[in-house]
Amino acid sequence: MNLKIKYLYALCISFMFTAQSGFSQSKNLPKLKVSKNQYYFVTEDGKPFFWLGDTGWLTFGKLDREGVNKYFQDRKAKGFNVVQIMVLHNINAVNVYGDAALVNEDISKPITTPGNNFNNAAEYDYWDHVDYVLDVAQKNGIYVGMVPVWGTNISSKNSKVSKEQVIKYAQFLANRYKNRTNVIWMNGGDTHGNEFKDIWNGIGSTLKTNNPNQLVTFHPFGRTDSSDDYHTATWLDFNMFQSGHRRYDQDTLPGSFKEDNYKFVQRDLTLKPIKPTLDGEPSYEGIPHGLHDTLQPLWKASDVRRYGYWSVFAGAAGYTYGHNAVMQMFRKGDKPAYGNKVFWYDAIKAPGAGQMVYLKKLMLEFPYFERVPDQSLIANQGEKYDYLVATKGKNYALIYTYTGRKIAINMGKIAGDKVTATWYNPSNGQKTKIGIVANKGVQEFQPTGKKEDGNDWVLILTSNK
Q1: Measured between alpha carbons, how far is 135 from 142 in angstroms, rounded to an integer?
Q2: Of 43, 67, 131, 424, which residue is 20 to 30 A from 179 by alpha carbon distance?
Q3: Which among 307, 334, 365 is the end of a domain?
Q4: Whether 246 contacts 303, CB under 8 Å
Q5: pTM of the predicted model, to two decimals?
Q6: What domain count does the chain have?
């Protein structure tokens, strides 16, 4: 518990500062719900909520209080409003302070202590630290996508976790966090949805029945989707897919969408009932192509931008970014996974993380709930990295190119005799006006720079008033 003692001095200094500056306890964040058109998220006060997530999977276990504050303050500054975290990475989970989560690795028996006093080790437990993280997230305007138990704990051949145990555990979670407005439940956890369905249905239905105002989804295995197995489940509020970390040539799965993550969105939006959908785990920045061969190239900022714009313009309700070092909260002395060599507190500054906010800002700049995907705008659609994707509202259209190739547009799809054309740079959010063009026939637009992967641009068309 020495880390707690070390933190007290910093805590006292922080308290003195906030007291002097008139700091008051942060209020609950607005509840989230599905929009009336069922495609997007909205806050209880009617405002659009564009999900911009980060994968901080091991936050509860590996970050101390100082680290928690540093991480969430950084993510707030970069525009993130959701962080996805495992509640239990393993059933033998122990946090940075040495507090175990469960009695004898029995998921139905969380270890809780009287009180919540950080100054007294006997009164501060694993779940109190989870509470602290949720408080810090709330203070920074961030919702937490909580995975109750990571899928390998259920799917392992040595697993002794039963349906009865997980239901008791889910009831514990539901009761403890019933008054939290910044909690989103992510059932599953990198696992095949068609396996152990009794357990996943048990967790999902228990959480949803007890807390109907908290959103629930399922985080599936790579190249799969929650809609594959749970789309009609009454506990599933929205779909989540994991487009995964492989390149086109590394994916030999029959029928796979490969890197074309927009295809998950296109398929999900044809299903009934309509539910929002999003990519909850694309390729992480700084992780090897295909994950396991550390000699492979690393996915870059331009790659995470591509996954974001492809899926959102196809109709997704948001997007989750990830970084190799941050998702594992890599610290000095840790055994690295997937060839990582960067500490998490350095990796939060990675270029891709800072660029995600430009996607969010662009989506919120235009009338939000009228936005629909529309590939009929594009006269030269292309495939693989040359694929162009389009979305529009009544008076605007947005078209994304990853490679800087020429864009040919079938005009007349938005209002007005003329439209203003503008380039938007996804790497820095800067706009460059092209000019006013006739809103008829086929118009061609050529981005600056040579045609190459990562020379990505958004063409913005707006109706002249």
Answers
A1: 10
A2: 67
A3: 365
A4: no
A5: 0.94
A6: 2
